[in-house]
């Protein structure tokens, strides 16, 4: 990478630089307008009279409080076309932020519990992802997340239902209410997923203590930790994350909306990067948390006075720790380098 790029050009650089998004829940990209549109066409009644009233309800005390409202939005999704349109809307929006690759989380169990089949859900998402290169000039793949508030048996059932669609899913993750649902609850089903060749990730250390991150690494044997921001409370864990280059997919605006940190100025992303953690920036649930990925970049950089070297590191990490093949990673990193060289060149 070239030297530091003038800070006056940083906002433009953050928007223009190619990046991958590795932590976003597709249901969390449903904008209130699309929720209302799908509710109308699927004859689902919502307890909110208007789009504005629904958006006004997006004020949360913690993760569980958010998950309750998020769950309301998922009830409007009925057909494969709904899942396809939701995913297409996210991909189109992400591409405007120069996202060149997205790894998308899907809560299949939520939709199965609402009466949809795994095929309806996965096929709708997969169709949008497979069209991403030609429609949007990007790549996208799917990670099926087990809901950790449900049982191990239900996670095994979910895995079983997904097996006929094996080739459409790159990885398995773990999401939903964290506290009281430690990673160890899912040791056996993650071992099975590993045997089946799935890549593994898990939410850990979003609200819950560092023990949950240790558990995700040692019991579930995940390759990336989603959030992981509680790691800074445990110096032995920090050493382990740095030594093993365990990536953290950090979601700063989510952490503020869910009151994990009191303000962005108090967020520990810069501290973690400067300590050598392989972190990335992501949007989590962009329709609920006040911004897509570029908004996460721009607000976090302003609050933490980060510079173009941090930007390069974060964007490069995002491609390198993705589940893409080596050739595609290299092609994206070359595109990233080209943008940085262009910004470094004298006008
Ligand atoms: N599902 C959607 N968003 C989530 C989050 N931030 N943490 C855990 N599960 C989620
Ligand atoms: Zn998440």
Number of distinct helices: 16
Which stretches of 5+ consecutive residues score pLDDT under 50?
A: none
End-to-end Cα distance, whole Å, is 18 Å
Helix content: 40-55%
Radius of gyration: 19 Å
Mean pLDDT, nearest integer?
A: 97
Number of spatially distinct domains = 1
CATH architectural group: Alpha-Beta Barrel
Structural class, from helix and strand content? alpha/beta
The level-1 CATH class: Alpha Beta
Lateral strand order in the biggest sheet: 1-2-3-4-5-6-7-8
Compact description:
This protein is an alpha/beta fold.
Report on the architecture of this protein.
The structure is a single chain. With 347 residues, the protein is an alpha/beta fold. It has a single domain, classed as TIM Barrel (Alpha-Beta Barrel). Helices cover 49% and strands 13% of the residues. It has helices at residues 10-16, 32-41, 51-56, 63-74, 80-96, 108-113, 118-136, 152-162, 187-195, 211-218, 235-243, 252-257, 269-274, 293-304, 308-320, 326-344, and strands spanning 19-25, 99-106, 139-147, 171-175, 199-204, 224-227, 248-250, 279-281. An eight-stranded parallel β-sheet has the order 1-2-3-4-5-6-7-8. Strand 4 (171-175), helix 9 (187-195) and strand 5 (199-204) form a beta-alpha-beta unit. The longest helix has 19 residues, at 118-136. The radius of gyration is 19 Å and the shape is globular. The protein starts with 9 loop residues before the first helix and ends with a helix. The model has no long low-confidence stretch (mean pLDDT 97). Bound molecules: adenine and zinc ion (ZN). Residues 25, 28, 63, 70, 175-176, 203, 206, 254, 284-285 line the site of adenine.
